[in-house]
Amino acid sequence: MAKTALITGITGQDGSYLAELLLAKGYTVWGMIRRASSINTGRIDGIYRSPQRENTHRDARLRLVYGDLADGSVLNRHVKSIRPDEVYNLGAQTHVKVSFELPVYTGDVTGLGAVRLLEALRECGHESRFYQASSSELFGLASESPQNEQTPFHPRSPYACAKAYAFHLTRNYRESYGMFAVNGIQYNHESPRRGEAFVTRKITRAAAAIALGQQETVSLGNLNAERDWGYAGDYVKAMWLMMQAERPQDYVVATGETHSVRDFCCRAFARAGVPLTWHGEGVNEHGVDQAGRVRVSVDPEFFRPVESECLRGDASRIRRELGWAPEHTFDELVGMMVDADLAALSGGRRGAPSAGKRCSNAA
Ligand SMILES: C[C@H]1O[C@H](OP(=O)(O)OP(=O)(O)OC[C@H]2O[C@@H](n3cnc4c(=O)[nH]c(N)nc43)[C@H](O)[C@@H]2O)[C@@H](O)[C@@H](O)C1=O
């Protein structure tokens, strides 16, 4: 029998890749979307025809319903009527820096939202499996590197604190009520569908726009921060595998490789055909192109009150037990993001320059 899945956050990067994966596997997919004054289904338009856009292709097995993780009554209603076999809770206020400005809202949606959904499932009584999108941000000021499933949490932001609450409640529902409820502790995962407020997409978009003469420079925050960046399309496969496992378990999902924001810039700009040289230090640091024009500058506005400086995951448990491994390298990830932005900004008229130019450092 074909399975039914419910995805919160289906209009986000991960939601769109996961919906495609589940549809390809024969699932019926229900996606919960929030009501907004403008249409926000851009990432799933290829598989869903919104009522306002009659001419696009529609997969009849993908259905959208309005809902909000802040509203428990609507979650109860959807769970009762859909009776999903699998629930993927990807919805959240996901921006770490924004969470310092919206700590209560972030706690409500990102933390309590998960519990509202778990409660809806418990009350419904239907045996659904539950996936919680946990985050490497839980480790924050990590006591060891790389981090694994045993590494203690030290969350460094309201976002991470809310995710910690959701993590523990997911585990608690598993232990208290015997639910199949699992946490995927996912490290940063990116793609051409990543929102432009996240650093990777901000950089690739800017590199493409600068290469095409549409933008002069880009301002960034902490260039020294290091992240374990993978490809989102690989990470939704890990979500699905976790939900098919014999017993419910929490897993770290990561590449095991870190790069600094500065390194990401170097590779992205080189890929776009604008190799950078670095000058200065701290907020005076800047990257210049071959003609000496400043292309990357540092602006204190983009720093966070505290930072998770270096996060690197050890995904050996999921590799060993579920056979998951990332299928795309860091260079492939940067390449696909820059190429997609070059194509989008040039209306698809421009081929991507070859990768591999080295970045020089003149501090
Ligand atoms: C796993 C985790 O992954 C994501 O959280 P994030 O790591 O905060 O992602 P980001 O792309 O906003 O920042 C990455 C790093 O880059 C630094 N950085 C420098 N300059 C800028 C800058 O200009 N903008 C931004 N956004 N970051 C900057 C920034 O300080 C940080 O150190 C979310 O999906 C989250 O939901 C999640 O769970």
From TrEMBL:
Domain of life of the native organism: Bacteria
Annotated EC: 4.2.1.47
Keywords carried by this UniProt record: Lyase, NADP
Active site positions, chain numbering: Y187
Reaction equations catalysed: GDP-alpha-D-mannose = GDP-4-dehydro-alpha-D-rhamnose + H2O
UniProt entry tagged with the keyword Phosphoprotein: no
GO biological process: 'de novo' GDP-L-fucose biosynthetic process
One Pfam family from the record: GDP_Man_Dehyd
Function: Catalyzes the conversion of GDP-D-mannose to GDP-4-dehydro-6-deoxy-D-mannose.
UniProt record similarity statement: Belongs to the NAD(P)-dependent epimerase/dehydratase family. GDP-mannose 4,6-dehydratase subfamily.
Upper classification of the organism: Bacteria, Pseudomonadati, Planctomycetota, Planctomycetia, Pirellulales
Gene Ontology MF terms: GDP-mannose 4,6-dehydratase activity; NADP+ binding
Cofactor: NADP(+)
Chain ranges of the NAD(P)-binding domain: 6-337
Class in the EC hierarchy, top level: lyase
UniProt name for this protein: GDP-mannose 4,6-dehydratase
